[in-house]
Write a structure and sequence with these properties.
Length: 214
């Protein structure tokens, strides 16, 4: 830990950030309909489970995100364009909501079932900080850092990490517990995050060691 001349404390190691008083774990979009689309999804679920158990054992706050689709009547131009791209459609009339609130595809996988004292934030956007109360809840609890695991790096985890910084949080990317749909896009995301230098990148083993050190 280093301290500025005006008294601001700046943690300098992962173990210092992993103090459960200042960090929360965010498990990103480990939903039935997403995990089954991603190659290696079962492996990511397994590794995220290891991360989750470590965080729970350390007394760290845990939040889950879920991506939702609104009913068709509430899908405007932005949502329709996104759905058309993902569903490879030429007409907005052909779009069908993939993740309705109560659909099986929207449910978090049973292996990572949230506990009663863990938060679940539903979102319409890719970043977990948009259209949710995640930022408010973290600040309200005095949390200054978030560790991220889940799916998918190039779709939602990268924008969540970058917006974490914009919202005044330090983001820790648990790289081998973050799935992806496209290897090249995933590699570009990680290269961007490493270039910017704002996020801390670790792996499952490093996260567990840091928690033990905290």
């Amino acid at each position: 830990m280093i301290r500025s001349s005006d008294g601001i404390e700046v943690p300098t190691t992962l173990a210092e950030w992993c103090d459960p008083r200042r960090m929360a774990l965010v498990v990103y979009d480990v939903q039935v309909g997403i995990c089954r689309q991603v190659e290696g999804g079962a492996t990511i679920v397994e590794r995220t489970g290891v991360v989750l158990e470590a965080a729970r054992s350390a007394g760290m706050r845990v939040a889950f995100t879920r991506h939702l689709s609104l009913p068709k009547a509430w899908m405007g131009a932005t949502q329709l364009r996104t759905a058309m791209a993902w569903q490879r459609l030429d007409s907005p009339d052909a779009v069908r909501p993939w993740f309705p609130r109560d659909a099986e595809a929207t449910r978090i996988v049973s292996e990572l079932e949230p506990r009663a004292d863990e938060a679940v934030f539903d979102k319409l956007t890719m970043s977990a900080f948009d259209s949710t109360a995640l930022g408010f809840a973290l600040r309200d609890c005095g949390v200054r850092a978030v560790a991220l695991a889940g799916i998918a790096m190039e779709i939602g985890i990268e924008p969540t990490v970058r917006q974490a910084t914009d919202n005044g949080f330090v983001a820790v990317v648990i790289e081998d517990a973050c799935g992806f749909g496209n290897r090249q896009a995933r590699d570009r995301s990680m290269a961007t995050l490493r270039f910017l230098g704002e996020a801390i990148v670790t792996d499952v083993a490093g996260f567990r060691i840091a928690l033990a050190g905290a």
